[in-house]
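Incident log, support desk, overnight shift.

02:14 A customer reports that sequence design results differ from what the structure should imply. Their input is reproduced verbatim below. On-call engineer (initials T.W.) acknowledged and began investigating.
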């Protein structure tokens, strides 16, 4: 795919290279399955290429890609009626542990409604206002979800029982 299209000053290939990690992270956090995440990753970047939206900046493009990735994952789960792996394991009582030096294992254990907000805040380093815009939610809702999500993470990590 090389047609000379430019997205916020980047070629398609540069955009994919620059934002691959962000889109992959969103897809993996949502679907908890690399094969399914890969499908949604490809769909997200296909939409960028074929829809060719106009962006005000690279940050605008990144936010658009994250929003599209979230929508792709939601659509994928609806179509396939799949429960993300961690939620399925949690329901079945199967331990689902990751390397505890990496926060992702704990994010996998949080409910989906907090996972997106926590991921965007801690991993992608978005501010509350930016997360609200990306997720199309009220800022106060995002603040509440961050607060509750932190409480869930604290319980997963075991709190600070010193």
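02:41 Re-run completed on a clean worker. Output:
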């Amino acid at each position: 795919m090389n047609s000379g299209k430019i997205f916020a000053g980047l070629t398609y290939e540069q955009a994919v290279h620059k934002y691959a990690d962000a889109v992959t992270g969103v897809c993996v956090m949502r679907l908890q399955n690399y094969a399914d995440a890969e499908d949604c990753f490809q769909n997200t970047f296909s939409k960028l290429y074929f829809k060719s939206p106009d962006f005000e900046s690279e940050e605008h493009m990144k936010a658009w890609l994250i929003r599209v990735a979230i929508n792709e994952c939601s659509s994928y789960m609806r179509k396939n009626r799949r429960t993300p792996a961690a939620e399925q394991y949690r329901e079945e009582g199967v331990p689902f542990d990751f390397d505890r030096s990496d926060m992702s294992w704990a994010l996998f254990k949080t409910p989906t409604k907090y996972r997106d907000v926590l991921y965007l805040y801690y991993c992608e380093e978005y501010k509350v206002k930016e997360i609200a815009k990306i997720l199309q939610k009220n800022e106060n809702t995002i603040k509440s979800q961050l607060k509750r999500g932190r409480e869930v993470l604290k319980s997963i990590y075991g709190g600070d029982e010193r």
